Amino acid sequence: MQDLEAHLTAFHTQIMLTGGSGAVYCKLLMSTLAGAVLEWFVSLPDGHITTFDQFATLFREQYLVNKAPTRLYYDVFDIKQYQGESMKDYLNRFGVQVVRLKHTDEAMTVHAFIKGMLPGPFSESLLRFYPKTFTEIKHRAFVHIAADDRVTEKCGLVGLIRPRAAGRP
To answer: What is the model's pLDDT at position 118?
Structure first.
């Protein structure tokens, strides 16, 4: 009951490695079905499906409502960094959505990423030295995240107390 195109794409990716005929593809795809989808497939009349493409078309038609809506390039402006969300998590979540876009404009992607960030040292550095590409943002974020990790590690050492000597003379 998830996105059928994602299911078919994942299946195609795996099946390309094995090769085989359309009949093999149908049998293998059938093995990935479960629940109501499997019941739908089993209810089809014998001999109803003659090619894998026909099977894929029937599958798409039957579960059209489960198709994920097409993401548009300006949808990235809806992605915002959550309060308390790390830069690494925001960057990964944003990056996943950019990959799903059909068409991207580099300047728009950079602007949307910066616009969605919470105020802080990294967002200020991006505003001071505006990046030209999303790849540049990722490289600068990597450096920023590594520096934050070192600072966090260093701060953790500051609070340590030296143990007392075993006994007093």
So the answer is: 92
Domain that holds residue 94: 73-158
User: What three-state secondary structure class fits 84?
Assistant: coil
- Distance separating alpha carbons of residues 51 and 57, to the nearest angstrom: 10
User: Closest Cα to residue 13, out of 3, 5, 2, 21?
Assistant: 5
Q: Considering only residues 149 and 168, tell me which one the structure prediction assigns the higher pLDDT.
A: 149
Alpha helices in the chain (DSSP H): 4-15, 22-30, 35-43, 52-62, 87-100, 106-116, 121-128, 134-158
- Structure confidence by residue, pLDDT tens digits, 93-123: 999 888 887 777 889 999 999 999 999 889 9
Q: Give the pLDDT score at 146.
A: 85
Q: What was the pLDDT predicted at 138?
A: 92
The answer to whether the beta carbons of residues 78 and 15 sit under 8 Å apart is no
Are 84 and 33 part of one and the same domain? no
Phi, psi values for residue 75, rounded to 5°: -65, -20
Residue indicated by tokens 């499906």? 49
Q: Which residues contact 131 (CB under 8 A, 6 or more apart)?
A: 110, 137, 140
Q: What is the CATH number of the domain that holds 102?
A: 1.10.1200
